[in-house]
DNA sequence: AATGCGACCAACCGCCAGTTG
DNA sequence: TCAACTGGCGGTTGGTCGCAT
């Protein structure tokens, strides 16, 4: 059951992993990928079961893991997502790049739960404790635990009232940002949101949606899994997506775009805005590939139209433009390892900069709006 | 210095769902 | 169709550490 059959066939090690074991596993996966987990221990020369190897890789060895303590923003996001998703740790983790479900679960059980209780909020229902106690007064602990597991999505009005009663843990109510005209947030009530991006069936996109470097379709520029990881598992296909401008003329330097400006939908963005100055906000983590950084930023709840717009602009930037700290490559196998800078001048980057400040709140709200239109997940 | 306690977290357990033969 | 296998998930355990007494 819990231990797979392979675990019984031979005496396998249990408990903490030694540095030597870590090294063996890391080397093996780096070189060959994990493939079938059950075959990994044998191939890597480990006396472990495949399940244990998988866990070790996912929770500890994976190179894209973020180390260190959780930021207040991350904690707030976890609380928001938990209010929507319940104990769906893997789904919550999917919205926190670099964090594992185990890590989040531990944080929740050891820290956040306690904080919420101290502040008079029931961590299971996200309602004030008095209210939660009344509704579960006749239930046993086990019953409550089961109810927690079966927690249905609260209605959006429930969520508002719940958050309205909390104090410091309340997320600020960010006004919907003044979106740059290029950005349109899809209407989450549109049934089209129920569809997912056709990551493995790109036929839904215009064939003009090309990687400007190779002129291959975006989805062919890398393997589907990678593309999926970049776009994130929770993006909703919207009617907006089908209306995306497929005019990539701005990628062509022979058009009105030139070496000094980039034209996009009648707006001209000066490349000079990308030149680092004292107002530049540096985004990303040293030593991490820029496309990964962008994938972390974009992974998750960003409305698809915004993602694709961002992609388009990112791709535009990627086409031979190199400004100060460097161009950034977001999509399509663009592997520039560069540092991306944002100027405070350019409206697009102003918008992006704002998003870096508010995306957690905004997209968790957006997610709630969308998920409440689903009724359930 | 010894002990107790709580916090933290890595890893295991048990179950489930999907896949395969 | 069904059993075995596998990957993935959420719940739980147990070891370690730091701090208070």
UniProtKB/TrEMBL annotation:
Compartments reported by the entry: Nucleus
PROSITE patterns: HTH_MYB (PS51294), MYB_LIKE (PS50090)
Positions of the HTH myb-type domain: 9-65, 66-116
GO cellular component: nucleus
Domain Myb-like, residue spans: 9-61, 62-112
SMART domains for the chain: SANT
Molecular function terms from GO: DNA binding
Chief localisation class: nucleus
Positions of region (Disordered): 119-175
Compositional bias (Basic and acidic residues): 141-152
Biased composition (Polar residues): 154-166
Protein name per its UniProtKB record: Uncharacterized protein
Keywords, sorted A to Z: DNA-binding, Nucleus, Repeat, Transcription, Transcription regulation
SUPFAM superfamilies named among the record's database cross-references: Homeodomain-like
The keyword Repeat is annotated on this UniProt entry: yes
Ranges of compositional bias, category Low complexity: 131-140
């Amino acid at each position: 059951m819990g231990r797979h059959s392979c675990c019984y066939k031979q005496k396998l090690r249990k408990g903490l992993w030694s540095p030597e074991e870590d090294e063996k596993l890391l080397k093996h996966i780096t070189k060959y990928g994990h493939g079938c987990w059950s075959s990994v221990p044998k191939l890597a020369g480990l006396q472990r079961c495949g399940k244990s190897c998988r866990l070790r890789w996912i929770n500890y060895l994976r190179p894209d893991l973020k180390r260190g303590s959780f930021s207040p923003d991350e904690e707030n996001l976890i609380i928001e997502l938990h209010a929507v998703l319940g104990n769906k740790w893997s789904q919550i983790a999917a919205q926190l790049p670099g964090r594992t479900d185990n890590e989040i679960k531990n944080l929740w059980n050891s820290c956040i739960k306690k904080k919420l209780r101290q502040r008079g909020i029931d961590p299971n229902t996200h309602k004030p404790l008095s209210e939660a106690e009344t509704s579960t007064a006749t239930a046993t602990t086990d019953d409550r635990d089961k109810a927690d597991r079966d927690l249905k999505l609260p209605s959006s009005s429930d969520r508002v009232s719940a958050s309205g009663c909390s104090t410091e843990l309340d997320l600020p109510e960010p006004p919907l940002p003044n979106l740059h005209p290029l950005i349109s947030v899809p209407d989450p009530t549109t049934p089209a949101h129920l569809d997912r991006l056709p990551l493995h069936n790109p036929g839904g996109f215009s064939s003009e949606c090309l990687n400007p470097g190779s002129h291959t379709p975006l989805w062919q520029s890398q393997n589907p899994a990678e593309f999926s990881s970049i776009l994130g598992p929770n993006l909703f296909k919207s009617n907006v997506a089908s209306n995306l401008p497929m005019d990539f003329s701005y990628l062509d330097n022979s058009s009105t775009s030139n070496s000094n400006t980039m034209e996009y939908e009648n707006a001209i963005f000066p490349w000079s805005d990308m030149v680092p100055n004292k107002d530049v906000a540096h985004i990303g983590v040293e030593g991490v590939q820029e496309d990964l950084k962008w994938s972390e930023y974009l992974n998750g709840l960003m409305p698809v139209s915004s993602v694709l717009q961002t992609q388009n602009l990112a791709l535009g930037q990627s086409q031979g433009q190199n400004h100060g700290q460097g161009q950034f490559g977001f999509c399509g196998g663009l592997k520039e390892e560069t540092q991306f800078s944002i100027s405070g001048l350019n409206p697009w980057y102003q918008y992006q900069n704002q998003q870096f400040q508010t995306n957690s709140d905004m997209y968790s709200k957006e997610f709630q709006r969308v998920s409440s239109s689903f009724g359930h997940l």
